[in-house]
Design goal:
With 231 residues, the chain is mainly α. The protein is built from 6 helices and 5 strands. Strand 1 and strand 2 form a beta hairpin. The longest helix has 28 residues. The N and C termini lie far apart (57 Å).
């Protein structure tokens, strides 16, 4: 079961990184092409922060986020091994494996792309291992995003507070395979694996009850309540 989990992580990472490297070395920043009409577009962009292009505060925020991701990945790897040893169902392991793969995929961008690639611009395609060095330092790279689904476009009604008359696009965020893996894993846990959390809580309650029943106070009380037996 554990081998299957890490095989999933490996496969997601291969597809995620292969696509990101191709995008990085073949497209300029902001370049796009249509895949399916105007609602599925490959649009090259980069972000300094979290999933779906969300940003995090400054350079120190970027460093803190990268370090947090590394710690989270370490914990997830340990937890998957722990679940596999407890013979947890494959559906749960599959979901956590997707989350681990997604986190790893974006960590690779953040940790190494700044060292491995020249900077992508609106005029120049990035180069791999440039002689002058990369565009940033270790742990300060940018995450490559490319999937864009502007399915609905329009304007908010004029009477709507704050946004009245402004244009909207759904779905606006640009994301990558790693983001998709994290989202799929989390949704899978919440929707299809709710029984896992119920079972986990029940086991924790049972273990706590066993500990309480075996405590010295309960043992002495039971001994005191027993009547001596005459032989």
């Amino acid at each position: 079961m554990l081998k299957k989990s890490f095989l999933i992580v490996f496969i997601v990472l291969i597809f995620d990184q292969a696509l990101k490297i191709w995008i990085k070395t073949h497209m300029t920043l902001g370049q796009e092409f249509l895949v399916a009409g105007n609602w599925f577009i490959i649009h090259f962009t980069e972000n300094n922060g979290m999933a779906f292009g969300l940003q995090f505060a400054g350079e120190y925020g970027k460093l803190a986020l990268s370090l947090f991701r590394i710690l989270a990945v370490g914990f997830l790897a340990w937890y998957i091994i722990h679940l596999a040893n407890k013979k947890t169902g494959f559906g749960v392991l599959f979901a956590f494996s997707l989350i681990l793969a997604g986190a790893l995929g974006n960590i690779i961008d953040s940790a190494f792309y700044g060292v491995l690639f020249s900077e992508s611009t609106y005029f120049d395609v990035a180069r791999f291992m440039p002689a002058e060095g990369g565009y940033s330092s270790l742990l300060h790279g940018k995450v490559v995003d490319m999937f864009y689904f502007p399915i609905l476009e329009g304007n908010y009604p004029q009477w709507m507070p704050l946004w009245g008359g402004q244009s909207y696009i759904f779905f606006r965020p640009v994301f990558n395979i790693a983001d998709s893996a994290i989202t799929t894993g989390v949704l899978s846990l919440l929707i299809f694996q709710r029984q896992f959390f119920h079972t986990h809580n029940e086991n924790h309650t049972e273990n706590q009850e066993d500990i309480n029943s075996e405590s010295p106070e309960n043992t002495s009380t039971a001994d005191e309540g027993q009547k001596p037996v005459d032989y």
